[in-house]
Amino acid sequence: MATGRVYVVTHDAELGLDVACTTLVAACASGHAEWITKDPSSYLGLPAVLSGEVAECLHQGDLRIFRIKAGDRGVCVRILKELDFIGVAQGSLILVEGADSFVVSESVDTDAAAWQQWAERSGCTVLWMCPRPAGQPDHEADFLRLAHRFSGLSRLRKRDGNVHWDVYYWFADGGVIADKSFRLDTDGHGSWWVDQRGTLNAEAAERAVDEDDVFVTRAALPGGRSAPDGWRVFETAEQMKEALSSARAPTVVINYSAGSPLEMLARLIFEVRRSIGPQIKIAVKEDGGRLRHSHEQLLLNLGANLVIPSETGFARMQSLLKSIQGQTFSGALPPDFEEAMTSVVAVEQAGYVAPANFMGAVSNVMERAQVLGIHNALVRLSLTPGLGILETLRYCIMKRPGDLCTADDESIYVFLFACEEQDIGATLDRLFRLPVSVLFTAESRFLSAEDITGALAEFNLRATEAHYEDFTAALASGAPPTMQPSAGYGPAVAAGRTPIRPPFSAMQHALKLRTVHP
Q1: Distance from the Cα of residue 186 to its chain's centroid
Q2: How far, in Å, CA of 398 to CA of 500, rounded?
Q3: ∠ CA 139-213-159 to the nearest 5 degrees?
Q4: Whether 481 contacts 416, CB under 8 Å
Q5: What is this structure's pTM?
Q6: Name one GO molecular function term (predicted).
Q7: How many CB atoms lie within 10 A of CB 74?
């Protein structure tokens, strides 16, 4: 630790005292230390060797112990005045045991700032030690929000029978350590040190700090049982997602209830994987039914590591979660969910389709999209008088795979792949180079799979009888549109102004007709 800085160590309750005393003894070997605690005699219960070393430091005058009354809230800043009053040697270590209980939540930033300024002014090193009682919320998230006040944040905990020092970040004279975990060794007499002491590098480091953390939705716990110590349980997946904002490599267990929307789960998995990276482990726990094989493969492609069958007991579930420890996700993810969805569903066709082939092309896209259970939309747009079909089609630029269009004698049909109803207007505005309200007088929307299929069948029947013109070759020529609409919006467009949408005389919904007045 460097002088003039404040550090924080959270720790399992049973580990704090011996590690604190080891740190104090080490500080006294080359200088002076002050120990602020609620129980000044607690060191007497340590192994004889370590307690004897503490007593020797006290006898030599290298260590002073100050007692704080339990439950004395708001005392954190007052301690600083007393330290100034009694005088503290420059370069001393100030170890505050149970510091979290001294900080008032509503003034924690102010208190931390006061200690930061005091450490810089006095040239002393401050170490806050904060216990983590079993089953109680962790403090790390609170301290991470105050990272600008502290020069180091780490935790001490037991796992797999060993004691580990997990470092979030730690500034020292020799450099910076971040996101590392070190195993601690002991001499059996209460003293601790870092394994491969003196080599704080990649060879001494182990896995990420939160490698063994488990985040789980309550519904994913079989039989409604309670979670083991150390597991963080969330009522909803959204709460879990928010808590994962500063995570790197924990295990995440999300439940999937039979019949629930698969798209929501797929989006959550993709967003968590995309934002956190390849080291986080994502498991899906089935609840009340089995995912189809195609659905399971979809979730694995979008970022999940494991799907746990519905009938799996808790002991087996723990074994399966242990089996994915250390795994990294090697799949390449697109930058956004829609693109990821398109690549997974493997839709390739986009743009204009001849009328005779339109029903087959859309049906193919819908069949592939059914794997994800996503929402599509079909929109029939009635042309403004004076505009020709070909000229209007040239204003439409479709690049996203799965978006298709065709036309009859009076309307253009636009199929929007993976498009929610509330996004239809913005999507149409993006596809057409002129305002939709200028090009068309009305629109009909078909949103459910049944309505889309029915509208396609009706169009296909008319196309078979009327033999609507195929504009594939004309559009491929790349000729720009030349006609301007004869409706009353031409001057507004020419002046660079976009009329407010929608001035349609009527907007039709596949299930309900409603008139919209401009």
Answers
A1: 38
A2: 23
A3: 95
A4: no
A5: 0.43
A6: cyclic-di-GMP binding
A7: 11
